[in-house]
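YM 10:42: ABC transporter ATP-binding protein sequence, as discussed on the call
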Amino acid sequence: MSDILLSLRDIHTDIGQYHILHGVDLEVPRGQVTMLLGRNGAGKTTTLRTIMGILPPHRGEITLDGAPVTALNSALIARQGVALVPEDMGIFANLTVEENIILASLNGPPDRDRLERIFTAFPALRTFWKGRAGTLSGGQKQMLSVARAMITERRLYLIDEPSKGLAPAIVSTLAKALRELKAAGATILMVEQNFRLAKALGDHAAVMDNGRVIWAGPMATLAADPELQSRLMGLSLEDHA
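YM 10:58: structure's back
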């Protein structure tokens, strides 16, 4: 079995008339966390949406465990064990927290042990279990979005800027839950602008610019080299630590 779970080769994706991804090459190792970094507009979210089948590429190949998935739609990608936590959270505001979780469970009613782990990670979800998701705070909605992905064990978690716009206490709660998911052996590809969180969670990093991956390597290498950070992203991670 290969150590690479997900592979992208020469991926080109358009949104309308705009050519967003210009030949993305990316490998995501099994059982580790890969951080997808770069300036705003570099193509990070488009890359996640392309992997998930929401934006089909017009060129290139995506493989999951060595099997091509490039032509699959998002529903079929989900059935392959891939979950997306989108930047806009993607919850059903008119449904209860409970109903959101049940809908996200791929195998019928949620596993009780897994549900208890989610309640331990996100106590607010137990408190508001019967409440409508639309009435939750922004941080609680993000917790629910992450919990929806976690309720069933997945082969790959795609997580888009989970800490964006959240208070530090909520970010800390999310970070703890993601560390536990990582410790359980999950494979995660995550876009994150909070570099403290990226350094704390990431095993590997891939830096994007202008629709391409321009650098890939150990997260520790990037975190330890402010000059490299500045050259790749125009800033130092230390400025955001």
